[in-house]
Structure formats: C-alpha cells, structure tokens
Design goal:
Layout (H helix, E strand, L loop, with lengths): L11 E8 L4 H15 L3 E8 L7 E3 L4 H18 L8 H11 L2 H7 L14 H4 L6 E4 L12 H7 L2 E4 L40 H13 L3 E5 L2 H8 L7 E6 L14 H8 L8 E4 L11 H10 L9 E5 L11 E5 L5 H10 L2 E4 L8 H8 L4 E4 L14 E4 L4 H13 L1 H18 L2 H25 L1
Parallel strand pairs: 1-2, 1-4, 2-3, 4-5, 5-6, 6-7, 8-9, 8-11, 9-10, 11-12, 12-13
Helix pairs in contact: 1-15, 2-3, 9-11, 10-13, 12-14
C-alpha cells in the first residue's frame, strides 16, 4: 500500500514518549507523530501520561490487577494512619504504603537504583492493530517504560532512539554538566539531586544494568546535535548502536516567523522605544539547566549604559524578581504558540544563558521570528547560532561578555536587524518541521533496509 507521497511505501510507525503535552522532547514527538500521519503513514503515539484524545494515542497504565492492589494498600494505609480502633499507627501506615504498595519500586529506590520495571509498557506492541515497521522511542525516563524491552524489541523490529538528553548514557542524570564520570561507568556521583534524583549512590550499578541491556540490543540512534551524538559514541551505548544520525529538531515556521516588531509591542503592551531582551524558560530563576544568575549579572552591568529604556522580559516565571533594579518583568508561562511568537517578534534580542542544553527549541523559535540570539556556548547551541552572523556565543557564566554582546546589539539596531534576517532565513531552511519530517522518513527507509540485512545474517 502506498502513501500520499509518490514512490513511498506506507509505513506503520509507533512513537514512544513519556508525555504527549508540553514542549521540548514531548513537543517534538507529537509533531513527528502528526507529521507522519499527514504524509500518509499509519502513526501511533504511546505515552506514559496521556492527555490527547484519539485512538492513535495510547496510554501505558499499569495492569489492572496491580493498580487494584496498590489502591487497596493505600486505602489500608490511610485507615491505619487515622484515629480509632484500627488507626493511630502512623509507622505501620508508612510501612504498608512503602513496602506493600510498591514493593519492586521501593526495593530499587532504597538502594539508589533506577526503576526499569513498568509492566504497562510490556503489552504495548500487542495493543497495536498492525506490526510496526519502525518503533521510534524518545524520552524513556519519567517512570513509565521498561528498559529491558529494548533487546527483544530490537531483535524483532527496527528500534530508533532519538535522544533529547543524556539519561541513557549515565547512572541517573539527564545532563551531567561538567562531570565526566559517565565515560567510565559513574559511581561516587557528585550530585544525586540532578533530575532524576536518587536517594543513594547507585549510579555505578545503574550503568552496569544499562550497559548489559545495550550489549544485547541493536539500536538506531538519532540526536538533534552532533555534540550529543559525540557523547553517544564515547558512552556505553556505543556497542549497542547499529547506525546513527544527526537530525536537527524542527519548528513550525508558519507560526514562528518574522513580523512587525512595533505592532507586536503594541499588542503586548510593551514600550515601543525600549531595548527589550527576552529570556524564555520554565521557572527561569529555579531552572537547573538555565543560567538566570548570569543574565541578572549581565543586566546589572548594563544599568545606566543605554540611552533608551531597557525592559528585560523573562517568560515562564511565576513571581516578580525584586532583587534586580530596572524594569524586569517575570511573565507567566504561555501555552499559545502564536502568543509566544509575538514576544519573540517584540524583543530586540533573545538572551539564552544556560548551563546545559541539547538543542533548545526556544532558540530556533526566536531565530525564525527574526530575533538575533545571545547564548551560552554549551551543548548543541553552537550548532544553532552562527557566532557573529545570527547572534553571539558566550562562554559559560561569562556575564561580562554577555553584557557586552547585548550592548553591541542595543547600540547598533541595523546590525541587530541584519542578524535577525539571517537567523530567520536559516531557521526557514535548516530548522523547519517539514525538513525534520522528511529527514526522519528518509532515514527510516535506510534503517529498515539495514535491519533486513542484519536479520538475514543472524
């Protein structure tokens, strides 16, 4: 059976991700799911937490019997924790809730081990009406997927893993920052609190367990940046890799596109004559991956240096910032992409200081809206921003240089406008969602052919 694209075979594609909402990795997975469908392929999205409707979006709840047992244990614990004849025993209540309701989970968590036992994912393939030609996995953490499925799945189907972070490469964290222990199997973790956090240091054992799973697997690895793929090649995932490919993320350039800056400011109630840097992040000040303190220090350095008013916008926060002088506006999270695009257009520069990043979508969105970028040169960001052409790159934590780059764009609106135009042109060609869809579908054909050759040799 053929798809709508001439000469292309219709494929059955199963995507797997933790969520079907929010942005980041989840947004990319949903965008690919819809893009594959629009191209004429049969596409399903399986998630740990389902919010979207439709028969092609599948949730992965725990089996009914397990859920009933856990419900019974929690009800018993509630009864034991209250007063009365059978109550007033908080210690026993906690023991029932901890040791009986989630025995496997508790055993692992108490020892600092990651929990791979999630029975709801084991029957996923049986729920599909057809055999998948491709299984396309995205984020496998967030406590919903049994990592032990990978060896069997990859023997029977081509399994593509798109990495959006480095969780699969180490003992627990999604980003290792400056730590290099993932190269040698972790252990003696310097920060167990990095997401996903651990109670005890079981990182070395977690690496051993993952390494054993990869050794029995044959996986096709995609990453949005060369930076992350280089980490894969230096990690314990390398022996389990059949083929690999860098496929940059894409955005909707029909929504994120250039527009009238002054009209956007009027609609948002922003001063038309001000210099406006914009920063977008979920809870900017508390976000572990972003570097809001560097932005604050850079902004403080600029105090009094400009002839026009400066308004710093931080989109995605929950409370005002009273620690910094000047006009700093912490704005709440915005879910409407068209409204987010208005903020990008209204800004003179998109500022993105960061401590750890893979391939941030917000930078692509800002570029597509014609806004030059000043960003930390960490992770995959240097593969997005051309230093001196579409914006400026700054060293990690270098608030002095960050301030100077912002000052250059404030003093030279013509340069800022030229950089923004170059950024928009780059985003429209290299980082549009249509290119991302096509790149994945083309690579899937190579993956399927390679999988067939390997199957014959077994």
């Amino acid at each position: 059976m053929k798809a709508d694209i001439p000469g292309k075979e219709r494929r059955n594609i199963l995507l797997v991700n933790c969520l079907d909402s929010k942005g980041g990795a989840s947004g990319i997975a949903v965008e690919l799911f819809r893009g594959f469908q629009a191209a004429g392929h049969a596409s399903w999205l399986a998630v740990g937490s389902k919010t979207l409707s439709g028969e092609h979006v599948l949730g992965m709840p725990d089996p009914l019997l397990l859920r009933r047992w856990e419900g019974f244990c929690h009800a018993l614990a509630d009864r034991l924790g209250k007063g009365g004849i059978f109550g007033g025993m908080p210690g026993l209540s906690r023991w029932v809730r901890r040791q009986l309701a989630h025995p496997v989970r508790s055993y692992h968590e108490d020892r600092g081990l990651e929990v791979f036992c999630h029975p709801g994912s084991r029957t996923l393939l049986e729920r599909l009406p057809v055999r998948p030609d491709i299984i396309h996995c995205h984020n496998l953490h967030y406590g919903y997927f049994d990592l032990n499925l990978l060896p069997d799945w990859s023997r029977r189907h081509p399994v593509v893993l798109t990495l959006h972070d480095a969780w699969l490469l180490g003992g627990h964290c999604v980003h290792s920052f400056q730590c290099e222990r993932w190269r040698t199997g972790c252990g003696q973790c310097p920060d167990l609190g990095i997401y996903p956090p651990l109670k005890k240091d079981g990182t070395a054992r977690n690496c051993e367990r993952k390494k054993a799973i990869y050794a029995r697997s044959s996986l096709y690895i995609a990453t949005p940046s060369k930076w992350l793929l280089d980490k894969v090649k230096a990690s314990m995932l390398a022996p389990g890799t059949a083929l690999s490919r860098v496929i940059p993320n894409g955005i909707d350039t029909a929504v994120f596109c250039m527009g009238d800056k002054m009209a956007a400011r009027r609609r948002l109630g922003l001063p038309e004559d001000a210099f406006i840097p914009l920063f977008v992040a979920e809870d900017p000040r508390e976000n572990l991956w972003k570097d809001y303190p560097t932005l604050k220090r850079a902004f403080a350095r600029l105090s009094g240096r400009f002839s026009r008013k400066t308004v710093l916008l931080a989109l995605g926060g929950s409370r005002p910032d009273n620690d910094l002088g000047g006009d700093v506006r912490i704005l709440p999270f915005v879910s409407d992409p068209s409204l987010v695009a208005e903020y990008y257009r209204a800004a003179d520069v998109y500022a993105h200081p960061a401590k750890a990043e893979t391939f941030p979508t917000v930078i692509l969105e800002a570029m597509a809206c014609g806004t030059p970028v000043v960003a930390s040169a960490v992770g995959g960001i240097p593969e997005q921003v051309c230093d001196g052409e579409t914006g400026f790159l700054v060293g990690l934590g270098d608030d002095a240089l960050f301030a100077e780059r912002l000052a250059i764009l404030e003093r030279d609106p013509t340069l800022a406008r030229t950089m923004g135009e170059w950024a928009a042109n780059m985003a429209a060609t290299r980082f549009c969602r249509q290119r991302m869809h096509a790149d994945y579908l083309d690579w899937f054909e190579e993956v399927i052919e390679d999988f067939r050759r390997r199957s014959v040799r077994r």
